[in-house]
Design a protein that fits this description.
Elements lengths: L2 H23 E9 L2 E6 L3 E5 L14 E7 L2 E7 H6 L10 E5 L7 E4 L1 E9 L13 H4 L2 E7 L2 E6 L1 H14 L1
Parallel strand pairs: 5-7
Antiparallel strand pairs: 1-2, 1-8, 3-6, 4-5, 6-7, 9-10
Length: 172
């Protein structure tokens, strides 16, 4: 056995053993803002972050339905998350972004005031949702809390908004 083969074998064993356990302990999320409230969305819940695309308004739809957009051949409904939950439209700014839900069966884009970047935490750092201090309009969608430099960052579930809030708004 040559040295290269031995090193390749050791490297593969290290990645398989330590890399997998480290990945299972890490939690990654996309930081975003609705109004003055900062949140995190699980990275595996968001397929992409986009600047506002061109969209087509849907006649008769509520104002919080921004319209439909064609994203690489997939028609995706776009929602103003702040308007849906708080009742006031999200102000148009250069920092506005859409968080595209990673759900092929139920594509959706949620407009937020700004995206603040990717954040990583140890899964052990997550605190229960009950410890989050958020406006009542957001409470049903918070699944946990991470602390970031003494600032709590609630974990916000976009999927729960889709299943619980949008389903009742459209059906009800």
């Amino acid at each position: 056995m040559d040295i290269y083969s031995a090193l390749a074998g050791l490297s593969a064993a290290y990645v398989q053993q330590d890399g997998v356990s480290a990945l299972q302990e890490d939690w990654a999320g996309i930081g975003f803002r609705i109004g003055t409230q900062r949140f995190l969305a699980a990275q595996d819940e968001v397929s992409e972050v986009l600047s506002p695309p061109r969209c087509t308004r849907v006649p008769g739809a509520p104002e919080w339905v921004r319209g439909l957009a064609n994203l690489r051949g997939t028609v995706v409904p776009l929602y103003d998350l702040g308007h849906l939950l708080l009742g006031t439209p999200t102000p148009t700014q250069s920092r506005n972004r859409y968080l595209i839900l990673a759900d092929a069966a139920n594509p959706a884009g949620f407009l937020v005031d700004a995206v603040t970047g990717l954040r990583r935490f140890s899964q052990a750092q997550m605190q229960p949702a009950e410890s989050a201090v958020v406006a009542a309009e957001f409470a049903d969608f918070v699944t946990g809390v991470f602390s970031e430099v003494d600032e709590p960052r609630p974990v916000f579930s976009l999927h729960t908004v889709l299943l619980n809030r949008l389903a009742t708004q459209v059906v009800g």
